[in-house]
Design brief:
500 residues, mainly alpha, Fumarate Reductase Iron-sulfur Protein, Chain B, domain 2, 2 domains, four-stranded parallel sheet, 21 helices, globular, binds iron/sulfur cluster
Length: 500
């Protein structure tokens, strides 16, 4: 049941710019990480005594390391194009949730410490030194950015607020001010192999359960194997795929697709997580430590290729960063792209007529598709520009008779974040999560009214978890949320064709 957070009535029309409400979200911030969670990631356990100096020093390091960050600090012309593009501003009216204002929280310190004008004339330059107040603003508002990059699409200079927010979080971690949700989860994946702390025994039981359920339903045995050396494919899925709904229905679909393709596959108990929260905290080192487990698992299991499941930010890490983080993949079969997205795998099989599909199995559904931020604006699929938009839609159209897109200003590169990405999918930020989901809920309401849409499919574990939780606040049922491979799973006719 939805709680007491108030939400406006949905119209389905373009959202109005909200009245500006200064400080509306100033008191909302995440829980602090415990000492052990910080030290496990090689950050100071608690805030260091000389934290102001250390924070400025770290900012200097990042400005040298990431030239883009220095450029972003310098080039904003205050044109205002980004001001109404953030879902958190549209949902809260807090002016610090305008992307340009969020950037200014770091820029004012940058001016004070790294520009001559800011050093000599701080008042004229709107420069400010690091202080308790500034840190409090960073702590709140850099944890009210889901790093979705929508604002950067509308910025004439391409300023990436997500990168600024990642840098701010890295600076805070470096002085012992870490976020509980992200750092605790990163500890689990580094220690146990997945975000949820599922041990190998529990994972084996889950896979056995999926296998039994699937067989009972279809009367055909489809395998869901773990730690099988020499399999063709190592499947790396977000761990939510092993137990949450509608994630697990999608996972069931992956198995059916591999079965029909005649490809042997396995999950690894050592690396049973595709999500990589190292990106959310801006830490390249942590991101690499998480990703390294996947490389080790693929190597040790002697697979030919790596296929990854439905997870938005992790696809960005895999697609954009794995090569430099954990490449080269010279021990894998060079005929395949590393990583391959499960949507690429499935679409390829469909195009080769390698799987029999019964679209009528989804006839009770009128489906729309939610583009996830990190897939849409930070990666690609297939060999064509826009493949990340077309391939999931092509799959849905191949397995469903009724598909309709939402308002074009809310999809593809203009998509709105679900409101829970970027390390914000935690209960203490529920107020922000609900309000940030307003633009997507409103566009969804539009096609529910106009076309009778009753299913919103997606390919991101965080989007699925977020929407099932927050859509009821907008009087939209949580069971509208579906995995793309859940729809595939329903339509696959097992044994219909020989896939390879
Ligand atoms: S990256 Fe996304 S969440 Fe962050 S300021 Fe831009 S639009 Fe808002
Ligand atoms: S759109 Fe870009 S240049 Fe314009 S105010 Fe926003 S960040 Fe600055």
């Amino acid at each position: 049941m939805a709680g007491k957070i108030e939400t406006p009535p949905l119209t389905g029309d373009k959202l109005p710019i909200p009245p500006v409400s200064p400080g509306a979200m100033a008191n909302l911030s995440p829980n602090r990480a415990a000492e052990g969670h910080n030290t496990f990631l090689n950050f100071p356990g608690v805030r260091v005594g000389d934290w102001k100096e250390k924070a400025v020093e770290k900012m200097g390091d990042l400005l040298d390391k990431y030239k883009s960050l220095r450029v972003f600090m310098d080039i904003c012309v205050k044109c205002g194009s980004c001001t109404d593009k953030c879902h958190y501003f549209l949902g809260t009216g807090d002016p610090n949730n305008m992307p340009v204002a969020r950037q200014e929280l770091m820029r004012k310190v940058y001016r004070k410490e790294f520009t001559l004008g800011g050093k000599l004339f701080p008042g004229l330059s709107r420069a400010e030194e690091m202080s308790e107040d500034v840190l409090a603003q960073w702590w709140s508002y850099y944890h009210q950015c889901s790093q979705c990059r929508r604002c950067s699409v509308y910025c004439p200079y391409g300023i990436d607020t997500a990168e600024i927010s990642m840098a701010a979080r890295e600076i805070m971690d470096s002085v012992g001010v870490g976020q509980k949700y992200c750092n605790e989860i990163l500890g689990k994946v580094l220690e146990i192999g997945n975000n949820l702390g599922i041990n190998p025994h529990a994972l084996a039981n889950t896979l056995e359960f999926v296998e039994e359920e699937q067989e009972e339903e279809s009367q055909v045995k489809v395998r869901y194997p773990m730690d099988e050396s020499g399999a063709d494919v190592l499947l790396i899925a977000p761990s939510a795929d092993f137990f949450s709904s509608p994630h697990i229905e999608g996972f069931t679909g992956y198995g059916k697709i591999f079965h029909e393709a005649g490809v042997s596959w396995t999950v690894s108990s050592y690396a049973s997580e595709f999500a990589n929260f190292g990106m959310f905290i801006g830490s390249y080192d942590t991101m690499r430590r998480v990703a390294e487990r996947i490389r080790e698992a693929a190597h040790d299991l002697k697979v030919k290729r790596i296929v990854v499941g439905e997870c938005g930010h992790a696809w960005r890490v895999g697609y954009s960063f794995w090569n430099t983080l954990i490449g080269p993949f010279d021990f894998l079969d060079p005929s395949y792209r590393t990583p391959t997205h499960i949507c690429e795998f499935t679409w390829d099989l469909i195009q080769r007529d390698g799987v029999k599909l019964d679209k009528s199995a989804n006839d009770e559904r009128v489906v729309t598709f939610h583009d996830s931020c990190n897939v849409s604006r930070a990666s690609r699929m297939g060999d064509m520009p826009g493949g990340q938009y077309d391939i999931p839609r092509n799959i849905i159209k191949a397995v469903c008779n009724h598909f309709v897109d939402m308002d074009e200003e809310t999809i593809k590169e203009a998509t709105y974040c679900c409101g829970g990405g970027g390390g914000l999918l935690t209960d203490e930020l529920m107020d922000l999560r609900v309000k940030g989901a307003l633009p997507r809920a409103n566009a969804l309401h539009g096609v529910m009214e106009s076309h009778g849409v009753n299913t919103m499919a997606m390919i991101c574990a965080i989007c699925k978890a977020q929407f099932t939780k927050v859509l009821p606040y907008y009087h939209i049922p949580m069971d509208m949320v579906a995995s793309v491979h859940q729809l595939v799973s329903s339509a696959v006719v097992l044994g219909g064709k020989k896939g390879v």
